[in-house]
Amino acid sequence: MALSGEQWTIGYSGREAVIASVGGGLRSFSVDGRSYVDAYEDDELAPGWAGHVLAPWPGRLADGEYSFDDERHKLPWNEPANRVALHGLVGWLRWRAVDVSDSSVTVECDLSPQPGYPFQLVLRTRWSVGPYGLRAVHTASNVGTRSCPLGLGVHPYLMLPNSPLDKWRLRVPAKKQLLTDERKLPSGETQAAFTEATAIGDTVLDTTFGDLERDSDGIARLELSNEDDSESVVVWVDDSFGWLHLYTGDQLDGERRRRSLAVEPMSCPPDALRSGTGLVTLSPFDAWSGTWGITPRHG
Prior knowledge:
The chain is an all-beta fold. It has one helix spanning 272-275; strands spanning 7-12, 15-20, 25-31, 34-35, 53-54, 60-62, 65-68, 71-74, 84-86, 96-100, 104-111, 121-130, 133-142, 148-150, 153-154, 157-158, 169-171, 174-180, 186-191, 198-199, 206-212, 220-225, 231-237, 243-247, 261-266, 280-282, 287-298.
């Protein structure tokens, strides 16, 4: 089997996405052959967590330590340089398909209780393509006997065909962005940049944006466009996702460096298991859900 596991290709009228079982996430997305996600090969480890679902927390957790219900928990570091536990526990697990059609696939993953996270979750994502582009509906269900803390994010890398990242114009629908310390952990906040469409240029982003501004339908929409506005893509999130993390890929290797922009919908900011900001507490047999999507435009 390929390194990224089993593959499911879904399509609708020229729109095509490939979902990989390892990480339960998005390996590619294109419209009429034009790629809007920086894809990776099926027999390749997803570079930089590309497309993976991040749960039960997204981002960095300082020292891998947190308290919940007056109980102290410690998780192993998987980014030892910063002494943090990064991006949860399901990003490298195999997910299974529970429903497949031509235009959608629903994948599911069991997260068993373990040291550092002694809670039991079932995670499910329905990926679909249609006239709207691509849509993902995530559900996390507490199937254990005790309440548990939850955060969820997703890690797609967005592209605009035949256009370099430094020429892209970016608008982020946010009022604030988080400042970070030398370990890339939240240390404060400031007024958000890119509130108007602005060229990315040589800006380095590994930045979490919050206090999202929403349209009348309750949706927040981030917009990317090329220099002459002939190509654009919107990443939209419902109100279950209160944060967007943007990463210009400066630490990625080779040709992937600064080739795409990670736009990560997140239900909470980094270090939320410690701070409690945006963190969901799921009672036994309770569930959380959130929806986001990608809508491209060409011409």
